[in-house]
Amino acid sequence: MNNRDLDELLRSYADKPVPRLPGNLEDAVWREIRLRRERPVREPFLDWLAACVWRGSSAVVSVLAAVALGAGVAGFAQNASMARPISRALNLQVFSEQPPTLRLTNPYQQP
Known about the structure:
5 helices
């Protein structure tokens, strides 16, 4: 769009009359303000949860529960890694000479 087109477009908008506002606009605006002030504001869930967790009496319980949960997850992860070696967890045996799958595709394998 060049400058002439923009100038023509702006002139066409300037030639149009400004629409009249409705007579009850001010009343409608004040009514909407009043209604919004009267309507209760819902608190977001995370704010409510944080307020409950960090209240004086429940803060200690919340911290202890988080520590216990973290210790449980860490213990589970440690036991899981001890139960099966990392090479099995990553399925690295598929790269071995005798993988557990695709036995028939190896032409050099002796039956």
